[in-house]
Write a structure and sequence with these properties.
This protein is α+β, with helices and mostly antiparallel strands and about 375 residues long. The protein is about 60% helix and about 10% strand. The protein has a four-stranded antiparallel sheet.
Length: about 375
């Protein structure tokens, strides 16, 4: 069974919702700066606040394929759920020469809450359906759809919360315009501060040794070297999207290219973005390995094989398996218990099954002993 990469699913959700910020585009030519900015904000934010079903469907069509289809998530349903309860008010507008700042109070759902999800509860629910036979462990598509339904239920349950955002404006040739620096603020309307949420949850749940391993992953992802050549506009867009994905989850070089191709970037632009995004692929493999070990068990060679399936090289996958800190005896014990939870085995049969999963004979024996066979 391929594992559910929860961070990959949430990252795709966040990247999709960040596109909603694209509605808030500006250009206003009123002579009074404060009135011009207030009108611009009202016009654009009302587009989000007052979206009807037809407008949401049109927005979903414009987004095209997002990768959520693999999880059975309909983009229209996702947007409808996330926009439920959206509201805003303009608190103040301060003008200083050709620069201005608008402070807004925004009420909206935030995807950051998903990063605090009880992963144990998700694993327990998954195992319950596997053991009952309601879900086929060998049907990857069915498992992905299960994950999509589970996460959509969580999205529906998110309560809108109030946050303050500050938008910067500049007086340009076409009048008062939203400064490019405000792009991040617009994206956080629905995605929230995922970096802070992710850091705190990992630090509170992971042992000290694992925290030391995760920290370099985040540091290497945020360090981005300058592109090796002057990029085209489409390459710049692909690179921006690649970096957004890497802010939320882990990818192999080839996996990131595939994800960007889902967004309809050309293979050439997607490859250029992956080559220039600044990711440490060893660190990415390690993060992905730790994701897998958070919700299921693997043998050493099984984990390497899963990472290779995700597009990592053998060297990267081996680095991750060597560095993830897993106790392979304990992994064998967990896998043995998983098997017994939904099927029956003889002692020798269970040892053979664990060896088939890639555990050594000694690890398999340890696992079977631990469950009392």
């Amino acid at each position: 069974m391929r594992g559910i990469a929860f961070k990959t699913l949430v990252g795709t959700l966040c990247a999709t919702l960040a596109l909603v910020g694209g509605l808030v585009l500006t250009g206003c030519s009123e002579t009074n700066p404060e009135d011009a900015i207030r009108q611009d904000i009202t016009t654009n934010f009302d587009q989000i606040k007052n979206l009807d079903d037809a407008a949401i469907e049109e927005l979903a069509d414009e987004m095209g394929e997002t990768g959520l289809e693999d999880y059975g998530i309909d983009t229209t349903e996702l947007l409808t759920s996330m926009l439920d309860g959206f509201d805003y008010s303009i608190e103040s507008i301060t003008v200083d020469g050709d620069n201005a700042e608008a402070t807004l109070s925004v009420t909206s759902k935030s995807m950051g809450e998903l990063m605090n999800m009880d992963s144990d509860a998700m694993t327990e629910a998954l195992m319950e359906d596997l053991m009952s036979g309601a879900l086929d462990a060998n049907d990857d598509d069915a498992v992905n759809v299960w994950a999509g339904e589970y996460v959509m239920n969580l999205v529906d349950a998110i309560e809108p919360s109030e946050k303050t955002i500050i938008l910067a404006y500049v007086n340009g040739n076409d009048g008062w315009e939203l400064d490019e620096s405000s792009g991040d603020a617009l994206e956080t309307i629905f995605t929230g501060d995922l970096s802070a949420t992710t850091d705190s949850s990992e630090e509170s749940e992971a042992p000290a040794e694992e925290q030391q391993e995760v920290t370099p992953v985040e540091e290497t992802e945020t360090s981005s070297p300058s592109p090796t050549s002057t990029p085209t506009v489409s390459q710049q867009n692909a690179l921006e999207s690649a970096r957004r994905y890497l802010d939320y989850t882990y990818f192999s070089h080839d996996g990131l290219i595939d994800q960007l191709e889902y967004e309809e970037f050309s293979t050439e632009d997607a490859t250029w973005a992956a080559d220039n995004c600044g990711a440490d692929w060893n660190a990415q493999a390690l993060g992905k390995a730790q994701d897998y070990l958070d919700y299921t068990s693997f043998s050493y060679t099984g984990l390497i094989g899963q990472l290779e399936y995700e597009g990592f090289t053998t060297e990267q996958a081996t680095y991750a398996a060597d560095s993830c800190g897993a106790d392979w005896n304990e992994q064998a014990a967990k896998k043995a218990q998983d098997y017994l939870d939904y099927s029956s085995f003889s002692r020798d049969g269970l040892i053979g099954q664990l060896e088939y999963e890639g555990f050594t004979h000694d690890q398999a024996v340890y696992g079977v002993d631990s469950v009392g066979l």
